[in-house]
């Protein structure tokens, strides 16, 4: 396990390093001055620009420039935005909080919805309910998220008037942004209207969370169903039945833990899909998170912000995937054996 | 299976738990949400001419020496209680109020009320190139340069603590009108000194201090601007405690947010949806006369637009009446010149070119372009009072031009980038417009077509003719209204002959309100004002 963990982590570090090389190269591929693209300081401010030339080794070879770039990057000095002149790294933190809150809630909802439904469908194999559940899940899976979001907005917000459609909270609640995750921020704040604010925040949250959860939930559902069916046909299940174990005991103790293995393996992929959907969704729901920030920066050709956003989202997806793989390998030793045998 | 039931119920539970919306909470009743159309460039109107910046700063954060009353068409006292002209109108004295408090904020505690020093500081900032604040945040003061105020005012000085004297280079009939515009705001000299000491002078425009009815709290780009009530406001303090601008650039989104009640007031509702909005008893739509002009300006420095024949041909080639119907849904008037109908100098003679493709073709042939050419039309990415949909307008023009053999490409950028590139004259032609800042007709011509305006980037046609400028100055120095009217007619004729730009429409400025909102003012000259706005709270039954 230690050897395996070490290899995964080393791979993560190498991938992240390659990502920084790519980002560094982007500064030269973007139109305009590479130093401006990197630091957000324009040549029209000669004093600050000259400082950056020295600080970022732009008077030296390209290798030294990269070394300095890496140094700045790891220290959290990601330059300043070309449009707001604010520090990119400092601006990024609350946005990351807002995105993580949304994605975690959606992930939890997807699991709570997808896994039991998959089990249920497996239990009803080839029955009417199985077909209904699978049919619904397949159609939900094929609906693009941006379209579904618009549809839900029309139905739940405009027609029924149940929910607002933009942002995290009614802006008239004056809540300081600390973590960016609105529920946590409200709890940390000293507003006398905490309860009302929480209710309002949940009212803003549930629609994007549901829309976001639908695609991973349907994926989970189908993986769960298939793996459960496969496990139920294994010899050890037959043997357990032959010994006269109760059906629920077989299901919970013998089938489910083994059926979870491919499901856990899919979690990383699910998270990646969720992150790409969240970018679209944040724009639609005006969610003040990484996704809408990144899209906006592309419109505004704000290169330092684009780099920061790209790196954070890519790093987040990589990190979650590695963690899922590590957990998977730790929880299911047979996976490790396969890996060692291969290499 | 129990797990299943819980799983299925969860989303529904969410809905049930939240559907009793959080109404009747104090902060929601004591505040107003205005869904503005974009990010302000700064919080100081001196620095910009963009309507978004004005809306977010001028009437909320600041006051001026005097105001212009639309209804009575006269100047009324504001920070100055009285004013007097001396020496044939080349010297003005203003007497100031002595009870005007600046904003108290976390970053600035004023120790004194407003005095003449603050007025001198505010004017000297843009007037005097050697003032320590002159180069701060760009050092461009487009309104003052374009209106010629920077040459007109020779000096501003404090006579005593509550008297300020302006010395002018010549008598000018538009001087008071210019002082009453949204741009001539009064900043705090004490705050300026404090920032200089801290070495952060640029904060004067991003963490603003003024005397206005609202105090700036925070600005989150692309999200919102928050203001709170200025408790020591020298007029009656606003009724609402909080004012929030929720930044919503997408016009469809603004309409939806209006319908869901997330916005209390929205600017520039979509013209096509206006009828729909008017029906609901929850939402009211109001319109105000807005002295504006939408136009299509050619970059006259670039070939082939340096040839007046080509410009005239293009003017003939465009069916403007169709634009009024399609883009404005008939909610605008076909422009008959630069000046709108509401201006006193307006003359009813139509000084524009009618739709005549055959004539356009003939003119193109005469100019040597019988095979046509290709060029770019820049279309604004945002809605403005004068143009609700520049993209659609560009598409219509594109189709019209194709009829006479000219290929037009439509180009657009994000709004701030768009304005930056325009100022650098990177365009072939642009669909944009102008909203007058004051009632003087000079405010239409000088910012748009004078040589002075070249440097500040409001002269989109890049058109400079010194004789034209001389005529503008002559009209300004004249005191008799009849003579001025005649001169402005002559000026309009000049524009008609030379066609640096094609006037398209004069439109109304629309706002939509939720029905419980009252008192939001949209003056004809200037930005929206929330000073007297409030929410009608219905008693619970």
Automatic annotation (TrEMBL), chain A:
GO cellular component, one term: plasma membrane
Domain ABC transmembrane type-1 span(s) in chain numbering: 96-328
InterPro entries from the UniProt entry: BPD_transp_1_N, MetI-like, MetI-like_sf
Transmembrane segments: 9-30, 102-120, 132-158, 205-224, 267-285, 305-327
Pfam families attached to this UniProt entry: BPD_transp_1, BPD_transp_1_N
Range of residues in the leader sequence: none
Recorded topology in the membrane: Multi-pass membrane protein
Location of the protein in the cell: Cell membrane
GO molecular function, one term: dipeptide transmembrane transporter activity
UniProt KW keywords: Cell membrane, Membrane, Transmembrane, Transmembrane helix, Transport
The family this protein is said to belong to: Belongs to the binding-protein-dependent transport system permease family. OppBC subfamily.
Top-level taxon of origin: Bacteria
Provenance organism: Pseudidiomarina sediminum
Name of the molecule in the record: ABC transporter permease
From TrEMBL, chain B:
CDD domains from the UniProt entry: PBP2_DppA_like
Any one Pfam family match given in the protein's UniProt record, by short name: SBP_bac_5
SUPFAM superfamilies named among the record's database cross-references: Periplasmic binding protein-like II
GO cellular component: ATP-binding cassette (ABC) transporter complex; outer membrane-bounded periplasmic space
Domain (Solute-binding protein family) ranges: 75-452
GO biological process, one term: dipeptide transport
One MF term in the entry's GO annotations: peptide transmembrane transporter activity
Entry keywords, A to Z: Signal
Protein name, entry field: ABC transporter substrate-binding protein
Stated family: Belongs to the bacterial solute-binding protein 5 family.
Signal peptide (UniProt feature, chain positions): 1-17
């Amino acid at each position: 396990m230690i050897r395996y963990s070490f290899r995964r982590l080393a791979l993560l570090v190498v991938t992240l390093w390659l990502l920084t090389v790519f980002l560094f190269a982007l500064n030269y591929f973007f139109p305009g001055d590479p130093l401006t693209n990197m630091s957000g300081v324009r040549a029209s401010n000669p004093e600050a620009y000259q400082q950056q030339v020295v600080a970022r080794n732009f008077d030296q070879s390209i290798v030294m420039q990269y070394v300095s770039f890496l140094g700045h990057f790891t220290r959290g000095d990601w330059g300043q935005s070309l449009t707001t002149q604010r520090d990119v790294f400092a601006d990024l933190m609350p946005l990351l909080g807002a995105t993580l809150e949304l994605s975690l809630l959606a992930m939890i909802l997807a699991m709570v919805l997808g896994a039991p439904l998959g089990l249920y469908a497996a239990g009803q194999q080839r029955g009417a309910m199985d077909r209904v559940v699978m049919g619904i899940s397949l159609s939900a899976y094929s609906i693009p998220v941006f379209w579904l979001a618009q549809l839900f907005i029309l139905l739940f917000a405009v027609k029924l008037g149940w929910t607002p459609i933009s942002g995290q909270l009614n802006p008239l609640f004056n809540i300081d942004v600390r973590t960016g995750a609105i529920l946590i921020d409200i709890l940390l704040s000293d507003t006398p209207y905490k309860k009302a604010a929480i209710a309002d925040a949940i009212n803003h949250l549930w629609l994007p969370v549901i829309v976001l959860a639908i695609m991973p939930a349907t994926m989970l559902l189908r993986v769960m169903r298939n793996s459960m069916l496969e496990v139920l046909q294994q010899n050890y299940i037959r043997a357990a039945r032959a010994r006269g174990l109760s059906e629920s005991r077989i299901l919970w103790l013998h089938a489910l833990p083994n059926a979870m293995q491919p499901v856990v393996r899919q979690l990383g992929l699910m998270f990646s899909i969720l992150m790409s959907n969240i970018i679209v969704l944040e724009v639609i729901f005006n969610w003040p998170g990484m996704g809408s920030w990144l899209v906006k920066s592309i419109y505004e050709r704000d290169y330092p912000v684009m780099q920061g956003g790209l790196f954070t989202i890519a790093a987040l997806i990589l990190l979650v995937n590695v963690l899922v793989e590590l957990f998977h390998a730790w929880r299911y030793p047979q996976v490790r054996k396969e890996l060692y045998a291969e290499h | 299976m129990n797990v299943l039931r819980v799983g299925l119920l969860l989303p529904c539970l969410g809905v049930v738990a939240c559907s009793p919306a959080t109404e009747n909470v104090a902060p929601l009743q004591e505040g107003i949400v205005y869904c503005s159309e974009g990010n302000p460039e700064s919080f100081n109107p001196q620095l910009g001419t963009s309507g978004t910046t004005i809306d977010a700063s001028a009437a909320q954060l600041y006051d001026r020496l005097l105001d212009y009353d639309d209804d009575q068409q006269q100047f009324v006292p504001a920070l100055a209680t009285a004013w007097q002209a001396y020496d044939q109108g080349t010297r003005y004295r203003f007497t100031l109020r002595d009870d005007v408090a600046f904003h108290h904020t976390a970053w600035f505690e004023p120790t004194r009320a407003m005095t003449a020093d603050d007025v001198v500081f505010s004017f000297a900032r843009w007037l005097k190139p050697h003032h320590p604040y002159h180069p701060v945040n760009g050092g461009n003061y487009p309104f003052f340069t374009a209106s010629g105020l920077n040459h007109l005012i020779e000096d501003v000085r404090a006579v005593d603590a509550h008297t300020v004297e302006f010395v002018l280079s010549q008598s000018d009939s538009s001087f008071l009108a210019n002082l009453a515009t949204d741009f001539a705001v009064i900043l705090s000299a004490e705050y300026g000194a404090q920032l200089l000491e801290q070495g952060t002078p640029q904060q004067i425009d991003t963490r603003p201090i003024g005397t206005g009815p609202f105090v700036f709290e925070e600005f989150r780009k692309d999200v919102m601007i928050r203001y709170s009530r200025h408790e020591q406001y020298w007029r009656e303090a606003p009724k609402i405690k909080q004012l929030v601008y929720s930044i919503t650039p997408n016009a469809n989104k603004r309409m939806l947010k209006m319908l869901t009640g997330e916005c209390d007031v929205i600017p520039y509702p979509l013209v096509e949806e206006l009828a729909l909005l008017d029906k609901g008893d929850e939402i009211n739509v109001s319109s105000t006369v807005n002295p504006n002009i939408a136009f299509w300006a050619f970059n006259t420095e670039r070939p082939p637009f340096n040839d007046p024949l080509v410009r005239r041909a293009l003017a003939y080639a465009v069916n403007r009446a169709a634009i009024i119907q399609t883009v404005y849904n008939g909610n605008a008037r076909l422009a008959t010149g630069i000046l709108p109908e509401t201006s006193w100098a307006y003359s009813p003679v139509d000084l524009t070119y009618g739709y005549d493709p055959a004539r356009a073709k003939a003119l193109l042939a005469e100019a040597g372009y019988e095979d046509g050419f290709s060029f770019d039309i820049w279309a604004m990415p945002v809605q403005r009072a004068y143009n609700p949909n520049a993209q659609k307008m560009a598409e219509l023009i594109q189709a019209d031009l194709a009829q006479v053999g000219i290929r037009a490409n439509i180009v657009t950028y994000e709004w701030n980038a768009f304005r930056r590139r325009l100022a650098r004259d990177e365009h072939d032609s642009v669909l944009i417009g102008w909203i007058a800042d004051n009632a003087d007709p000079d405010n239409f011509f000088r910012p748009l077509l004078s040589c002075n305006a070249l440097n500040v980037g409001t002269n989109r046609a890049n058109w400079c003719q010194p004789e034209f400028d001389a005529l503008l100055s002559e009209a300004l120095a004249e005191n008799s209204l009849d003579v001025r009217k005649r001169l402005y007619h002559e000026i309009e004729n000049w524009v008609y002959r030379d066609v640096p730009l094609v006037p398209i429409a004069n439109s109304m400025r629309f706002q939509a309100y939720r029905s419980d909102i009252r008192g939001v003012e949209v003056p004809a000259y200037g930005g929206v004002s929330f000073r007297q706005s409030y929410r009608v709270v219905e008693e619970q039954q």
